[in-house]
Amino acid sequence: MFGNITDVPGVKVGNVENKEGITGCTAILVENGAVCGVDVRGSAPGTRETDALDPINEIDRVHAISLSGGSAFGLDAATGIMQYLEEQDIGVDTGVAKIPIVPSAVLFDLFIGNPKTRPTAAMGYEAAKNARVGFFLNGNTGAGYGATVGKLAGPQFCMKGGLGSASMAGKDNLVVGAIVVVNAVGDIKDPSTRKTLAGAWNKEKAEWIDCCAYLEEHVQSEALSGTNTTIGVVAVNARLTKAEAKKIAQLTQNALARTIYPVHTMLDGDTIFVLGTGNTIYPVDYIGYLATKVMEDAILTAVKSAKKLAGVESYSSIYKK
Fold first, then answer.
1. Residue 41 near residue 7 (C-beta atoms within 8 A)
2. CATH fold of 5-320, please?
């Protein structure tokens, strides 16, 4: 196993970064199609095609998920992924064209790089073209390249977030994988120790600013509206209905609640997609339990793997000191 979401059969991942913009995008391909559900828990989301995933609606399979920086501008990356899939003759057959279904979510990363340089359709196409099964870097990679965390006391106190992925084997050949981009307004803590791994950091005093304590004292956040979110995907080699996939996405949000303080705020757009790629039926609660664990691992991997960039400190740069 590679220790990432591509351990789930049928899943490929491709990443692209733009160094000038300090931004990037991540394509999660399921070329054979996968049942998909979504749970949007934050109040400042940037998404595309999520309505199609409602269990009452007709479309029941997707062909990729796009995760991207660039705020709402970054939704363009999904167009490039669609173009790549169409060239591979992949999509819903309408009789006159095959239309790839590519739900997407974006994060705000415009303030540490050039805000005029954002993920484009061309970058999405390249990420899809790069998609493969195997190892890829975590941290400052793909959609996590410009991700930051700990902005509740103001963006000047932020630290690097990033992209992280993990996988886990369950019973009866079940495999669950997660990939996530951590760009939260709050602090990231290890749920087993409550140790702060990344968050609001006062460089001058070389000390943490506890985001929850700051909110209690000051009543409101100094973060900018719509500039934070955690977005991710869980994949499982199980047979799911859209309703079951949505429920597992809801359960997986528990991982965010165990690692991000505060979470699901008015300033976050927290969004989790769930993909079912297999034919074997497993209990939904069992899949949800494993999905929560593997998402926790992915979140911690994201911040621990991130590197200092554009003057923004990271887990490795702070703890080396």
1. no
2. L-amino peptidase D-ALA esterase/amidase (3.60.70)
